[in-house]
Amino acid sequence: MNAPEQFWKHPLVETAGYFSVVVLFLIVAMGLFEIVTKYRNWEEIKNGNLAVALATGGKIFGVANIFRFSIQKHASLPAMLGWGAYGFTLLVFAYWLFEFLTPRFHVDEEIEKDNRAVGFISMVISIGLSYVIGASITN
Fold first, then answer.
1. How far from chain centre, in Å, is Cα 88?
2. Distance from C-alpha of 56 to C-alpha of 70, rounded to nearest angstrom
3. 114, burial (CB in 10 Å: exposed 0-12, middle 13-18, buried 19+)
4. What is the number of other CB atoms lying within 10 angstroms of the CB of residue 57?
5. Are 50 and 111 within 8 A, CB to CB?
6. For 84-126, how does the pLDDT look when each residue is reduced to its tens digit (9 = 90+)?
7. Do the beta carbons of residue 55 and residue 111 sit within 8 Å?
8. Helices 11-36 and 77-100, packing angle to 10 deg
9. Domain-by-domain residue ranges, the chain?
10. How far apart are CA 133 and CA 135, in angstroms?
11. What pTM was estimated for this model as a whole?
């Protein structure tokens, strides 16, 4: 292996690369969640809305956890990104499913009203499903 190949295969360089890619993806993911939800995540968090903070924190953890599984399994950056993006798509679908399966109230409206119970359940759904999604993408 020549020197440039050794450089790119060094664990410190690989870690920095994965970190950079996942942080960029998290920024994109949070932008997409900002579009998907009816409220302004960061404005609500700034105003002290704990329900939004819980739900958003669960989404961040969920996306990062899916990428953790993807990095562990897939050696190439394109494969890691592809599976991570697929897992993210499933997480967004799960959020819409949560909204659909609660016909007695609207999840987004309750979270916006700082209903911490709904924010907590949203967080747990994101975290829990990230483990299921992550485990399935490692096969």
1. 6
2. 21
3. middle
4. 16
5. no
6. 889 989 988 888 888 888 888 899 999 999 999 999 999 999 9
7. yes
8. 30
9. 3-137
10. 6
11. 0.86
